[in-house]
């Protein structure tokens, strides 16, 4: 059997690792934008090869797949799906594990995802509004902030995150800092207006969403369109620095285990989260008439108004969350992929270890994420035997293997180290012990988050979960889960979630 | 003794933040540490350091200087209990502004010692390539007990706590945009910033536009200021992970166990001693009553520089509620006794308004030595407990009995090992360093 992977990060290295462990002994081929040293080695050891090329270019991918005589393709990152790579492969009769272009809209368009949730009145949604431009957004907020108090605490998401303009959170909870927050918000909208003026092809340029708080976690699933199988919960850590401070990254490390949930999420919350993901898969299939086969994930948060809530959806596995899940996976990964291809997932028994907690820590060069040009181009020195001796695993990320055997940093997250143990803190400590095995030969600095998996950070997560849980269970007990009632003098009792349902459904259904 | 704030922003649009707004409210929350002199420094596009200082309190300062506040998206601030005590601005060789709580051992005088420290930091940052390494070298070299925040012309915010760790410093962040440090967690709460943990003893944290980096502090024996737990820190703060409110309650309970007395009511001296009185009442079963009503704003009388101001503070603060005290035997709970004048004033006031017996219970050991780290405990010849025994003191202030906590009792109430608590102000042998 010949299998081909797409993508060159740590997530793809982990997928390749599991493919290499399969009893089906597949020949492994790969296409990535960088020569990931880990994937390169696995391909070579399994009668295949890694070729560099644009992973969003259908022509290149299809040509390579046909040239190699590939039976099945597995797509790692989201971009190939957004660009219709799975569609192109399937048109050629090549099986592909990965969401097709239309279905991947649940990740690509945050506005379409919210609309889908409200149109189908699915649980776990957030209030939102879309705007054609930043000016319209700021005008709307200014006019309605009194009658719709949720507009005080918002997340601003540009439809296209380009030019460094990403997600912005604005919490306006202190009335004495209101003017300051207001001013910042206006200035931010102004800068968005300028930078996004060029995009004339999209309607929803700005998404404004209610800001929720609570513990976050990811639920990654396999689906063949009929069955959605959940995997162990994983928590990623997005802030660059210790104890959740500093700029946003792609993810600095993640924890999971030792069982299907996390120490601060209940089994019941897991089941609810799985239902939510199932609901989204079902709805998007109904809407598009297409079958979803591949991976799907919910980036979830326990929130006071809804309980388990979707923050964003993945149309693929998370990076680094995939590493945790795949480390715990006992079922042969090719058996899973084959069951997806044959639409037989319901017959598959998905098994995970219940003995090991898994910690993953990402190592990035100084400069990431704000000054990537500074983080790029440094030679890497890794003592792999040291890492193994400490019982840890290495997964290469944004690294490039040069012809002379030297690995060079690519400016983004360089690699991930994974440690396992009976509980999370010793697994974390294991990685810390071997952290010095990774260095840059030119003396440029590397950093990672030592707090991931520590007892201290776990206690913090637990604390947040224990403050949110009683709030949403109160709502559950009172039959008002999902409502956001408030009293606005002279306006009366309001419920923005009821209004939103009316808007998306028409008044009779709401 | 100052309260410190450091405010830092990251990411797209950071130049739109106005650090002085956050510093304003952060300092407001720290006024318990002193409010005589206010100063702040900010830095914005162009990397020019602007500073401003003036007489307190915080609200008056920010109102008065509304239009001339330094503009910038990162900054530091200080509110101090000393007159004319402002953050230090060093222009060469490496421009920086520095605010320091506590005292370095570079000079007898606290202000001079801070200036010398700032100059040495400037020198080291100039000569050493790695600012993190330079700063950790410095705090390991320079003795004393201190925490500090510094802002450099390279948009670096440096926060550090010397290995002894006498003075608190806490970190916080919110979203991906804002990080902050503050002397106490209450200031982070007020700024709407989530507390992320203490700056460890011997730790240096440097914020740059690109990242936040910290050194790995050596495991050195730390010694936290016990007076923070008794009096200095605000009730809604955590100091080095310990909640102040809980500790003050334990102090009261510990007092009730070790120094019981028969009485009708427990009355606490506002504000600091109220939770201590509450603990005393809970443990002893003697009901607690509100004994005083405050006029005007909350003033920390003990931190006022002159005797007149201290008495004025106490008298405005302590108008007795006559119905609560008339004809009663009272346990009067206070946090500490410095010169004894305010206690004398209070006891006299209660008796004049009809109180029967008054048993004073102090939620800390007798203050007998000045603080080598800059807490304004006066020289020994001003300290009433350094010179009088409990019986003499009771007679002097007109109380029927007075007892202080022992050092062991206080340590037990705080719950830290003895070697991790600085109790030099309660120890007779301790010198002025």
Please characterize this protein's 3D structure.
The complex is a heterodimer of chains A (510) and B (433). Chain A is α+β, with helices and mostly antiparallel strands and 510 residues long. In chain A, 35% of the residues lie in helices and 25% in strands. In chain A, the strands form seven sheets. In chain A, strands 12, 15, 18, 20, 23 and 25 form a six-stranded antiparallel sheet that branches. Chain A has a five-stranded parallel sheet with strand order 3-2-1-4-5, with helices on both faces. Chain A has a four-stranded antiparallel sheet with strand order 6-9-7-8, with helices on both faces. The model of chain A has no long low-confidence stretch (mean pLDDT 93). Chain B has 433 residues and is α+β, with helices and mostly antiparallel strands. Chain B has two domains: 3-222, 4-Layer Sandwich (Glutamine Phosphoribosylpyrophosphate, subunit 1, domain 1); 227-426, Rossmann fold. At the A-B interface, α9, β13 and β14 of A face α1, β9, β11 and β13 of B.
């Amino acid at each position: 059997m010949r299998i081909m992977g797409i993508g060159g990060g740590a997530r793809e290295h982990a997928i390749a690792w599991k493919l290499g462990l399969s009893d089906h002994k597949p020949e492994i081929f790969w296409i990535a934008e960088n020569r990931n040293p880990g994937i390169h080695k696995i391909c070579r050891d399994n009668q295949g090869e890694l070729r560099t090329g644009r992973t969003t270019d259908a022509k290149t991918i299809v040509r390579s797949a046909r040239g190699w005589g590939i039976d099945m393709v597995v797509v790692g990152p989201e971009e190939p799906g957004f660009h219709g790579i799975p569609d192109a492969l399937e048109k050629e009769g090549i099986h592909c594990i990965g969401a097709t272009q239309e279905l991947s809209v649940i990740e690509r368009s945050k506005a379409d995802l919210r609309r889908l949730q409200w149109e189908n009145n699915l649980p776990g949604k957030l209030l939102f509004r879309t705007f054609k431009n930043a000016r319209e957004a700021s005008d709307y907020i200014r006019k309605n902030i009194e009658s719709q108090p949720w507009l005080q605490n918002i997340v601003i998401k540009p439809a296209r995150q380009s030019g460094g303009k990403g997600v912005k959170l604005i919490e306006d909870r202190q009335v004495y800092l209101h003017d300051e927050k207001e001013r910042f918000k206006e200035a931010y909208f102004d800068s968005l207006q300028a930078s996004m003026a060029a995009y004339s092809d999209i309607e929803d340029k700005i998404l404004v969403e209610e800001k929720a708080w609570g513990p976050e976690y990811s639920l990654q699933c396999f689906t063949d369109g009929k069955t959605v199988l959940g995997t162990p919960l994983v928590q990623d850590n997005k802030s660059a620095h210790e104890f959740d401070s500093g700029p946003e990254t792609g993810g600095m490390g993640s924890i999971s285990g030792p069982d299907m949930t996390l120490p601060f999420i209940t089994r019941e919350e897991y089941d609810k989260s799985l239902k939510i993901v199932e609901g989204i898969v079902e709805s998007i299939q109904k809407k598009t008439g297409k079958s979803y086969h591949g991976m799907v994930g919910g980036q979830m948060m326990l929130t006071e108004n809804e309980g388990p809530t979707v923050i964003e959806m993945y149309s693929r596995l998370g990076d680094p969350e995939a590493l945790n899940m795949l480390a715990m996976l006992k079922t042969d990964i090719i058996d899973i992929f084959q069951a997806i291809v044959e639409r037989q997932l319901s017959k598959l028994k998905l098994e995970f270890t219940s003995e090991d907690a898994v910690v993953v820590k990402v190592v990035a060069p100084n400069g990431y994420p704000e000054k990537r040009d500074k983080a790029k181009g440094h030679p890497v020195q890794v003592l792999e035997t040291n890492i193994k001796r400490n019982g840890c695993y290495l997964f290469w990320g944004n690294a490039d293997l040069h012809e002379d055997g030297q690995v060079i940093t690519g400016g983004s997250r360089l690699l991930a180290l994974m440690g396992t143990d009976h509980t999370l803190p010793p697994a974390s400590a294991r990685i810390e012990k071997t952290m010095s095995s990774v260095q840059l030969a030119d003396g440029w600095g590397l950093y990672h988050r030592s707090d991931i998996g520590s007892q201290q950070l776990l206690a913090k997560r637990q604390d947040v979960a224990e403050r949110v849980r009683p709030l949403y269970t109160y709502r559950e007990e009172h039959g008002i889960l999902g409502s956001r009632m408030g009293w606005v003098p002279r306006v009366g009792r309001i419920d923005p979630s009821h209004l939103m349902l009316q808007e998306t459904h028409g008044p009779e259904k709401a | 003794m100052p309260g410190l704030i450091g405010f830092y922003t990251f990411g797209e649009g950071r130049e739109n933040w106005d650090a002085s707004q956050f510093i304003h409210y952060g300092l407001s929350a720290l006024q318990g540490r002193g409010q005589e002199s206010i100063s702040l420094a900010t830095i914005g596009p162009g990397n020019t350091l602007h500073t401003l200082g003036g007489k307190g309190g915080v609200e008056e300062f920010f109102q008065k200087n509304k239009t001339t506040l330094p503009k910038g998206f990162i900054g530091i601030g200080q509110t101090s209990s000393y007159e004319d005590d402002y953050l230090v601005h060093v222009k060469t060789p490496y421009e920086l502004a520095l605010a320091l709580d506590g005292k370095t051992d570079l000079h007898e005088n606290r202000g001079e010692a801070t200036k010398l420290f700032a100059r040495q930091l400037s020198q080291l940052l100039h000569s050493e390539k790695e600012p993190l390494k330079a700063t950790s070298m410095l705090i390991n070299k320079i003795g004393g007990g201190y925490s500090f925040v510094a802002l450099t012309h390279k948009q670096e915010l440096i926060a550090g706590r010397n290995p002894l760790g006498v003075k608190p410093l806490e970190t916080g962040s919110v979203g991906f945009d804002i990080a902050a440090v503050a002397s106490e967690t209450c200031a982070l709460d007020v700024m709407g910033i989530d507390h992320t943990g203490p700056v460890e003893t011997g730790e240096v944290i440097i914020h740059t536009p690109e990242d936040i980096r910290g050194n790995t502090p050596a495991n050195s024996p730390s010694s936290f200021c016990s007076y923070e737990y008794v009096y200095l820190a605000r009730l809604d703060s955590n100091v080095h992970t310990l909640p102040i409110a809980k500790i003050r309650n334990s102090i009261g309970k510990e007092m009730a166990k070790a120094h019981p007395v028969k009485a009708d009511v427990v009355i606490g001296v506002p504000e600091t001693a109220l939770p201590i009185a509450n603990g005393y009442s809970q443990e002893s079963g003697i009901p607690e009553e509100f004994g005083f009503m405050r006029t005007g704003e909350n003033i920390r009388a003990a931190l006022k520089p002159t005797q007149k101001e201290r008495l004025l503070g106490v008298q405005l603060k302590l108008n007795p509620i006559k119905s609560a005290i008339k004809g009663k035997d009272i346990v009067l709970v206070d946090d500490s006794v410095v010169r004894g004048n305010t206690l004398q004033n209070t006891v006299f006031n209660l008796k004049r308004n009809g109180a029967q017996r008054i048993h004073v219970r102090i939620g800390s050991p007798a203050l007998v030595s000045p603080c080598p780290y800059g807490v304004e405990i006066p020289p020994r010849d001003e300290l009433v407990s350094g010179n009088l025994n409990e019986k003499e003191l009771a007679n002097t202030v007109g109380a029927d009995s007075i007892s202080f906590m022992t050092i062991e009792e206080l340590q037990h109430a705080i719950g830290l090992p003895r070697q991790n608590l600085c109790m030099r102000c309660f120890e007779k042998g301790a010198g002025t360093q």
